Amino acid sequence: MSAEDQLSKQISESISRMLSRVGDSPASPSPEVSAIEAYRDEKHSLDKQRFDEDIKDIQSARTQREKYARWVFLLVAAWIGALFLILIAQGACPAWHPFSDKVLIALISSMTINLIGTLVIVLKYIFKSDPKA
């Protein structure tokens, strides 16, 4: 229980005891009751404002996820397309080989590792489980 909740509970109990001593509720609220009501109204207002901001943050995160998911898909598709074109260029004409076998192996390996690394990093960032993190 937070300190605010404990304080609110103590104040409510004090007011209940005061009202039970007097008998019926007073005709006009005491300054303590007014202060408590003002405190509760302000706390409710701040809680509602915080909730509205959290909703806006979640909606913004969803919009960004949709946007960047498309961009990641296009990046991966272009990356795979470039690798495919390099392999086609290498095997299209037996007499003409733009890359040696060692360079081709290094190129394919590095492009694949970069592709997987980029996907993992970006997708973990975009689709993290806790929106507040």
Task: Explain what you see.
It is a single chain. This protein has about 130 residues and is an all-alpha fold. Helix content is about 80%, strand content about 0%. The chain is built from three helices and no strands. The chain has helices at about 5-20, 30-90, 100-125. Helix 2 runs antiparallel to helix 3. The longest helix is centred in the middle third of the chain and has 62 residues, at about 30-90. The mean pLDDT is about 80.
In N-to-C order, the SSE pattern is HHH
Shape: rod-shaped
Give the C-alpha Rg. Answer: 32 Å
The largest β sheet comes out as: none
How far is the N terminus from the C terminus? 24 Å
Number of strands: 0
What is the residue-mean pLDDT, rounded to a whole number? 80
Uncertain runs are none
Instruction: Give the % helix.
Output: over 70%
Number of alpha- plus pi-helical segments? 3
Structural class computed from helices and strand pairing: mainly alpha
How much of the sequence lies in strands comes to under 5%
Q: Which descriptors apply to this entry?
A:
single chain, 133 residues, mainly alpha, 3 helices
Concise structural overview:
The chain has helices at 3-22, 31-92, 101-126.
Architecture blueprint of SSEs:
Blueprint: H1 3-22, H2 31-92, H3 101-126
Helix pairs in contact: 2-3
